[in-house]
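Quick review question:
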């Protein structure tokens, strides 16, 4: 049995640095966190850091692989049911709160802001190093949601082109953000305007209408069943900044030219999108954030071993859906893992 360790040396490439000791995490017993100090923020907002969270290996659990989970925009890791699911199948679970996100954001920093999605490569590599220190020579499944589902394929494609694939052996994407939703003009003239303005006003928030529809469907304070920190994941989401959106659109363009993540991929999404300014029963049985047709269209850009499975009545985060679509999402994930025994 592989057991948890109290310290780790993170990093698997140039620029890596020793990690601090694991400490108790806000999730309580059975969870620990490790802070990566990343030095001065390239975008000029003080010092950057990222936080890796691990579910500790429990007595009697066998570890044959590991998972690295990456959250989306206006999000952080709190989905302990997902961690338990993987652990039950022999996969030690780790989740990374990226710089300026969730646990990693520091006072005075703009939530989730980066000028280039490639900046996340540093903490992603450090996280892989920490996993390797805890569980040497085990395969790693990268799992990611929404914006994390764009960040991680871009990172894996860069790793492959740089001659690295291992220890990553599989990719699971939960409603990945593969294109800009909304009217076609936003993907043409709107994007050109964003790119131009990002050079002079990168931190300017977009003037978008606030909505709590998705948050209301999830959080226990409204109509949902999930209890999480609204300071880290507000009901309305954080403001979308010009510079961040420009970075995302560059990421979209790179994806659309075609990637090769180098490993088998599973893409889970809802079977439908429902946009509304007010919450209704339909909001609980659809993706209220992204256009699922775009996910279906662009999933083929990941490489030549991609499975795409729509989950009927799923929410944007399929693993936070109502009970039946949630169970179906887990059934699909379980079947996919069993089809790839080298991941387990």
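Suggested answer, residue by residue:
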């Amino acid at each position: 049995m592989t057991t948890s360790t109290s310290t780790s040396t993170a990093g698997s490439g140039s620029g890596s640095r020793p990690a601090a000791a694991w400490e108790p995490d806000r999730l309580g017993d059975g969870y620990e966190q490790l802070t990566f100090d990343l030095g001065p923020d390239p975008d000029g907002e003080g010092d950057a850091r990222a936080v890796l969270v691990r579910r500790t290996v429990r007595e009697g659990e066998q570890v044959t692989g590991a998972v690295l989970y990456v959250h989306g925009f206006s999000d952080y890791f709190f989905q302990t049911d997902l961690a338990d699911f993987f652990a039950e199948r022999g996969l030690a679970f780790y989740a990374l709160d990226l710089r300026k996100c969730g646990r990693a954001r520091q006072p005075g920093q703009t939530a989730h802001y980066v000028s280039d999605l490639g900046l996340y490569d540093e903490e992603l590599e450090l996280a892989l190093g920490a996993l390797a220190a805890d569980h040497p020579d085990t395969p790693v499944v990268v799992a990611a949601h929404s914006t994390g589902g764009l960040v991680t394929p871009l990172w894996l494609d860069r790793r492959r082109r740089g001659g690295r694939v291992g220890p990553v052996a599989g990719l699971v994407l939960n409603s990945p953000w593969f294109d800009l939703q909304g009217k076609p003009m936003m993907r043409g003239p709107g994007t050109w305007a964003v790119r131009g303005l990002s050079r002079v006003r990168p931190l300017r928030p977009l003037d978008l209408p606030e909505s709590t529809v998705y948050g209301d469907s999830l959080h226990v304070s409204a109509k949902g069943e999930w209890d999480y920190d609204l300071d880290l994941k507000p009901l309305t989401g954080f403001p979308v900044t010009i510079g961040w959106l420009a970075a995302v659109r560059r990421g979209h363009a790179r994806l659309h030219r075609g990637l090769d993540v180098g490993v088998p991929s599973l893409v889970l999404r809802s079977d439908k999108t429902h946009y509304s300014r007010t919450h209704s029963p339909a909001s609980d049985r659809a993706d209220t954030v992204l256009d699922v047709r775009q996910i279906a269209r662009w999933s083929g850009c990941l490489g030549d071993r991609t499975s795409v499975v729509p989950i009927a009545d799923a929410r944007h985060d399929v693993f936070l859906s109502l009970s039946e679509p949630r169970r179906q999402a887990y059934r699909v994930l379980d079947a996919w893992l069993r089809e790839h025994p080298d991941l387990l």
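Why it works: The chain has a mean pLDDT of 93. The first helix runs from residue 80 to 88.
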